[in-house]
Amino acid sequence: MIYFVKHTDYVKIGFTDDIRNRLNHLQVSCPVKLKLLALIEGDLNEENAHHEKFKHLLSNGEWFRCTQELEEYVTSLDRQLMWKYGFEHYKGSPIGEIRRCRLEKNLSLEELGQLLNMSKQSVLDMEKREIQGKTSIATIIKALDVMGYSYQYRASPK
Question: Would the pTM count as exceeding 0.70?
Answer without folding.
Answer: no
